[in-house]
Amino acid sequence: MPDAEDARRIALSLPDTTEKTAWSMPTFRVAGKMFATLPEDETSLAVRCPKEERDELALAEPGKFWIADHEAQFAWVRARLSALEDEDELRDILADSWRQAAPPHLLDTYPDLGRPPGE
Question: Which of 89, 113, 67, 95 has its CA nearest to residue 1?
Answer without folding.
Answer: 89
